[in-house]
Structures are given as C-alpha cells and as structure tokens.
Specification:
310 residues, alpha+beta, Phage tail protein beta-alpha-beta fold, Jelly Rolls, 14-stranded mixed beta sheet, three-stranded mixed beta sheet, 7 helices
Length: 310
C-alpha cells in the first residue's frame, strides 16, 4: 500500500501543491482520515499575525536606502555576501560604548534591522542576533567583527574581512557565502569565489556550490545548486538539518517562543518551512519526526515527543 508520510508530502498537501492524481490517491487512502483529523485539530490554535510580504518590503526598502548613501572614494563595492547563524539573544538596540570603544547592534526575536559598517559594508541583521566591533580597528583597516545570531553581509572590497563566531571563524577571500552556527551545528556554504573556514585546527577552502557542515563534530561535505541563500527571500528549505536549527528559524519567522521537552536533538529534518501559517508549519516539522506541539495564547510553542496515547 502506498504511504504518504515522506518528508515533503504533508507540506505540499497543506499548501495545496499536490497534483490532482496525488490528491485523489491520498483522499482514498487509510492515512487521509488521520491526517485530516490532525490538521483540523492543529489549526484551531491561534497563531500570531504574520505578513511576510510586508516584512520583506520593509527590509528591501531599508536596503535601498542604505545602498544609496554616499560612498567614500577609498572603497569600491564588491559582490561579497555572508550569512551567519549562531544562537540567539534579544534586545533591539544600537549602542556605542565610549569606555571600550565597542559598537553593538542587536535585535529581538522576529525583528530585522539594516545598518552600515565603517567601511561602507551593509549588514542585514536577523532576529535574536548581535554584532559587535571596534571602530578604531576599522579606521586602521582591520575589518573584524563578532557575531551572535544571523546576518547577511554585503562587503566592500579592501583588506581581509573576518567574522568571528563562537564555533569558528570565516574569512572572506572575495566571495558570497553563508554560515549557520547553533548548538552542536556549524555549516558554511560558498556561492561565489572562495571562503576559508577555520574550526579548531582544521581548515577548509570552499568553492562555489560547495559547503561543509559539522553536527556534533561529525564533518560532512555537501553540494548545492541554488545561487543564493533561501532565507533572504523568506524561504526556508532544509536537507537533513538538525531540528534545533529549524526551530530557531521558525521562532524568528513567527515571533514566538519555543520550548521543548526532551526531544531527541539528533533528529534531522528535510523539507520546507511554511511561512504564512504557524500551525501548518509546526505540523509539517513535528509529524515526520514523531513530535507533537501546542500553542498558548501568549505565543509560546511547546514541542515534545509523541506518546502512544496521543
């Protein structure tokens, strides 16, 4: 008997993306009644309002304003981009500490801001993220910053541009790249040029279409075909990605707090994150991994292992 529990089938059904033939077979199957009951129940949860188009338009508007600012003649714009994801912290603020000459930018959950670095490079900072740097270093052409969370960089040509994270260091050799760094998970993908990745004593140079990921210190080399990171266009696609990284994206997309109760952190998810309905999104993530969820009126999501009686 044909099964309808692969990694992407449920998401395609909830998004009305099945072919007529697939839908007919599914509705005639034994699985349909159980899935229908489950989705009807899950969609009763009240989810926070989320307008992806409005958020994207706001971000793009901020980008356009920042890019049109007058540039110094000492810098020439380069096609260099980076995305880094490490962990989270809240508090939307800009702060310059005159005692330590350190400048900070930070965001709360679900927020994004756009700002310009001293050399004219542009940063889009995602939710629960923080960037810190010393402007005096940049005056001396030392382009180094620390990042917690997730950011997209458009870097001006010049000296080496280094982003330091808790789990590793990423150095630009003239490229476009993205980095994700969460608990026990560290991944880098190169879209253009070359990227050097340093993790401990190990070094790896990536070329376009190549990536590297570590999960619980197990290294895997990967390949991909997309020309840019999916999250920039508010799309989230995963291929064997740890659950904790997926839930962090969901938390930022829907501006909710996620609490887990003894889930197996080794679980991995393959599929897409639905960005316009939190109940559907949670269902597509939890069902294939044998998890259940509930949402409170305070926008707190609880996720736990599915018990036989539920």
């Amino acid at each position: 008997m044909e099964k309808f529990n692969d990694d992407t089938f449920l998401a395609r059904w909830l998004n009305n993306e099945l072919t007529a033939e697939e839908l007919t077979k599914f509705e005639a199957s034994e699985d349909y009644a159980a899935y229908k009951k489950l989705t009807d129940k899950s969609l009763l949860f009240e989810a926070p309002n989320f307008d992806s188009n409005k958020i994207k338009a706001s971000i793009m508007k901020n980008k356009e304003v920042a890019v049109t600012k007058v540039r110094s003649l000492y810098y020439t714009i380069a096609s260099i981009a980076a995305i880094l994801l490490i962990g989270g912290l809240g508090g939307n603020y800009f702060f310059s500490d005159t005692n330590t000459t350190t400048t900070y930018y930070a965001t709360q959950v679900g927020e994004r801001i756009n700002f310009e670095l001293p050399d004219g490079s542009i940063v889009d900072l995602n939710g629960m993220s923080k960037v810190a740097f010393n402007p005096k270093d940049w005056d001396n052409n030392i382009r180094t910053l620390n990042l917690e969370g997730e950011a997209f960089f458009k870097v001006q040509k010049g000296s080496k541009f280094t982003v330091q994270t808790k789990q590793g260091k990423v150095s630009v050799l003239g490229t476009q790249f993205d980095v994700k760094d969460t608990e026990n998970y560290f991944a880098v993908n190169c879209f253009e040029g070359k990227v050097q990745v340093d993790k401990g004593s190990a070094k790896e140079v990536l070329t376009p279409g190549k990536g590297i990921q570590y999960f619980q210190d197990q290294k895997d080399l990967i390949t991909f075909a997309n020309a840019s990171p999916f999250w920039i266009d508010n799309q989230y696609k995963y291929n064997n990605v740890p659950l904790q990284a997926v839930l962090l994206d969901l938390q930022n997309v829907y501006n909710v707090t996620i609490k887990t109760k003894d889930p197996n952190k080794a679980k991995r998810f393959t599929g897409n994150l639905i960005t316009n309905n939190i109940s559907k999104a949670l269902l597509t993530i939890t069902k294939p991994l044998n998890l259940t969820f509930s949402i409170t009126k305070d926008d707190v999501v609880f996720i736990k292992e599915n018990s036989p009686n539920e």
